[in-house]
Amino acid sequence: MKSFFSANSLTRLLIITLLALTTASCGFHLRGNYMLPEGIAKLSLTSFDPYGKLTRMVKYQFKLHGIEEVKPAATVPNLNITSESTGDSTLSLYQNNGKAEYDLTLTVNYTVTIPNQGIEQFSTKVTRTFLDNPLSALAKSVERDELIDVMREQAAQQIMRKLARLTTVFNKIEEDKLNAELNQILQKQKVSIKDGSTTTITTTPAVIHKKQDHNAQ
């Protein structure tokens, strides 16, 4: 029996099979309100401010969603909070040109590292409107700090939602790597194999010879 496959077809079939196995091996587990990948059941957390409010809120989200925080290691996925910043954009002014109303924005930058897959950078933003009053500056300062804490909590929740989509992100990275390898293989084949040529794979059925019974001779 003879089967005819082009070299390109065989290579593509191999890559597709690898992609299917990679995707099928990724599992999910319901943790809290999100479907988080099983690969991050244990996660290390590092931060530019290890004892800051944002870091503590992210740790609380870990507990809430059943993620075990472990020490950083080469074989353990890592969430690294790299920075936190606030900014504002004026919406309206008082007659004396003082800020009356503005949008307050909290920006959190972080990275996620998955062993043997790579590192991805992310940024999350939370924006809220704040009404200022120069006549009660102290009270408004306290109110602003409280609002920023609420925004930090929302940013921590957004980070968890991003973790829930990690498998899709890293599957895309793996797919891009495999596609790049496929293109390299096909480029090499163009040099050594003419277009339209085929590779013939011949399979020969095994022949089994029965030993004659000496008593029957």
TrEMBL record:
Predominant subcellular localization, coarse grouping: membrane
Family annotation (InterPro entries): LPS_assembly_LptE
Location in or out of the cell: Cell outer membrane
Gene Ontology BP annotations: Gram-negative-bacterium-type cell outer membrane assembly; lipopolysaccharide transport
Pfam families referenced in this protein's UniProt entry, alphabetically: LptE
Any single GO CC term annotated in Swiss-Prot or TrEMBL for this entry: transporter complex
KW Signal (keyword) present: yes
Keyword entries, A-Z: Cell outer membrane, Lipoprotein, Membrane, Palmitate, Signal
Claim: Membrane is one of the keywords in the record: yes
GO molecular function, one term: lipopolysaccharide binding
Matches recorded under Gene3D superfamilies: Lipoprotein like domain (3.30.160.150)
Membrane topology: Lipid-anchor
Function: Together with LptD, is involved in the assembly of lipopolysaccharide (LPS) at the surface of the outer membrane. Required for the proper assembly of LptD. Binds LPS and may serve as the LPS recognition site at the outer membrane.
Subunit structure of this chain's protein: Component of the lipopolysaccharide transport and assembly complex. Interacts with LptD.
Family according to the record: Belongs to the LptE lipoprotein family.
The name this protein goes by in its record: LPS-assembly lipoprotein LptE
Annotated organism of origin: Photobacterium andalusiense
Taxonomic lineage: Bacteria, Pseudomonadati, Pseudomonadota, Gammaproteobacteria, Vibrionales
